[in-house]
Amino acid sequence: MKDKTFLMIPGPTPVPESVLLDMAKHPVGHRSSEFSSILKEVYADLKDVFQTKNDVFVLTASGTGAMEAALSNLVNEGDNVLSLVIGNFGERWAKIAESLGANVERMAVEFGQAIDGNALKERLDADVDKKIKIVTLTHNETATGVTNDVKNLVALIKEHGAVSVVDGVTSIAALNCPMDEWGIDVLVSGSQKGFMIPPGLAFIAVSDKAYSVYEQCKHPSFYFNWGAYRKSVRDASTPYTPAVNLFVALHTALKIMKNEGLSNIHARHKKLATALRAAIKAIGLELFVKDESIASYAITAVLPPAGVSVPDIRATLKKDYDIVVANGQNALKDKIFRMGTLGFVCERDLLAAIASLEASLYKLGHKFELGSGVKAAIEHLV
Amino acid sequence: MKDKTFLMIPGPTPVPESVLLDMAKHPVGHRSSEFSSILKEVYADLKDVFQTKNDVFVLTASGTGAMEAALSNLVNEGDNVLSLVIGNFGERWAKIAESLGANVERMAVEFGQAIDGNALKERLDADVDKKIKIVTLTHNETATGVTNDVKNLVALIKEHGAVSVVDGVTSIAALNCPMDEWGIDVLVSGSQKGFMIPPGLAFIAVSDKAYSVYEQCKHPSFYFNWGAYRKSVRDASTPYTPAVNLFVALHTALKIMKNEGLSNIHARHKKLATALRAAIKAIGLELFVKDESIASYAITAVLPPAGVSVPDIRATLKKDYDIVVANGQNALKDKIFRMGTLGFVCERDLLAAIASLEASLYKLGHKFELGSGVKAAIEHLV
């Protein structure tokens, strides 16, 4: 139905109407005092969301731009980088590091698994000469719906002495990720996820330790240069003409988030994702991530039932119920579908999605007790 | 007055209401067929605006991001780059090239002047060993309101054999800049200027010759990688999650532009800027660019009259008439003010601006014949 589409993909995610309308205002000048006041509040509110005293730089870019902004200010040619890979986005860190001329070593696990802390400890302990300069990792792997134990992994990296570079694109403002408490050196995120605004802005927060490594970087990016961004944040400004309308949207969204409260936001994500998983199992479908202790609160990957294809499930949900869910990526294409419960999603949205998934599977011939998914979800939610 | 502000700065520029409203729609999935259809039309329409058969890559970034995207796919450490500098934005090319490890030679002129074709010819002729790999230049220098004779300069660069890299940020879709006819190798622009949408997207078109140089680039940027963008354009896709709402806005704006017609758009910009210059002179103010044959059709820099300060002119225009004009940058701060007639600006807007400038100057004590600016503009427009 026209104008009814509801996105349950891992980004872009639904956007509150007040955010959309503020975004639609005529652009303001990016060097005006009006915009500077907006920036001042945005920069302060972002520190709360990142749970950090570090400056949070806001880039006009995709999340991948923020990933490049992380490594291109740290890596010199020939540096040793250890990339912890649990899915496509972990692999992206490795590729970016390679594009900068780093020697990249991958510690990879089967997709659907998380990084084993003991294995990481063993590898870092073996690096007695401290050759590993940077370790990249993913908090919430969007490709599989697995959440790494970042707290533990970063503690190990800190003990070794390397710089920890964490992808929080689908985790910040959805999952708890206290940058300072956990000692993360570089943390990046994107606007179209937990921040409830459209894509186009990306975030990067940098510890003093990481900043001192940047100061030894021979050819840091010009557009993403940390020095320029740090100066601008402190001047309530931006280095170049930013996506002003998206900043205005972000300003509004951050107020909404402040009003809900960060711990309530995290609790909501946890509640919705665990209710969804209960429903998925109740209607006889299998979760891609078997070990629920590492299952994401932002994105749930599901295997189709025997005899029903992922494309059919996605097409029925879209055509008959106006709900968009994501396919698997690369090797996982048509093997799983992924449902986002990320950002501006309420319990009604979740119930609608589960009921629509039931209706779609019923149409496609899957045998199960109709209503069992909704029942399981309600029991979990209430 | 609330909601009355009118931007006459060199970007962001005013945005049509239909563009703002389309931008405010809920984001669509960036891997959906709906978005792919939008991309297909956008990519085709952009070729018309750039007057090229080359693919036009659309980046989620500021104009400076597109500048980095140009050089970071071409420059290897130690390459020789000649930067033609007529203002701040010409200097930015040089800084980006230096950040990539290039040996940069600057050919600079006094601000307010354009590059002399004979001087460039002499320099390039002297490079008998063809050591200069890349020449960077600016079509329309936003900092001064000077337009370089890109047609002639690029012809000289072509004859030498270097790769020409042109900043068209404030020129494309405002001034005539036929990429293929003039033989430009790399041409960049931004969304918040002639394209009539808010900032956040940037464009880069690349000739086959430039692409073959990219193929020899040792460490091209990952986020801005030409190979990834070329593949995506041809698949009606984008490499990473793009600013989907800005793409939707661009889609609408390009239809409006098509409807007006590119040559009509160019003629409108020429007419408005020359009418503005006639008005400025009629009210006894001095143009920063004395030689009107190199004066920009997008941005006009003006000296304040004796005894009246630039900050007072800007403040009065803003407070009493809701018009924002730009100050000079760096050394030109408070020495000039700059009025944009760029993008979504009509004759009524220009007349309002001239009349408001007259009223402001009158309040500030400048002696001149009231109405003379409007008279000169009308005589020019009608």
Features:
homodimer; 382 residues; alpha/beta; Aspartate Aminotransferase, domain 1; 2 domains; 7-stranded mixed sheet; 14 helices; 15 strands; 43% helix
Question: If you had to describe this structure to a student in words, what would you say it looks like?
Answer:
The structure is a homodimer of 382-residue chains. Chain A has 382 residues and is of the alpha/beta class. Chain A has helices at 17-23, 33-50, 63-71, 88-99, 117-126, 150-160, 179-182, 208-214, 226-234, 244-260, 262-282, 310-321, 347-363, 372-381; strands at 6-7, 56-60, 80-85, 103-108, 132-138, 140-141, 146-147, 163-167, 186-190, 201-206, 286-287, 299-303, 323-324, 326-327, 337-340. Chain A has a seven-stranded mixed sheet with strand order 2-10-9-8-5-3-4, with helices on both faces. In chain A, strands 11-12-15-14 form a four-stranded antiparallel sheet, covered by helices on one side. In chain A, strands 1-13 form a two-stranded parallel sheet. In chain A, helix 4 (88-99) links the parallel strand 3 (80-85) and strand 4. In chain A, helix 13 (347-363) runs antiparallel to helix 14 (372-381). Chain A is globular and about 60 Å long. In chain A, 56% of the residues are buried. The model of chain A has no long low-confidence stretch (mean pLDDT 97). At the A-B interface, helix 1, helix 3, helix 4 and helix 10 of A face helix 1, helix 3, helix 4 and helix 10 of B.
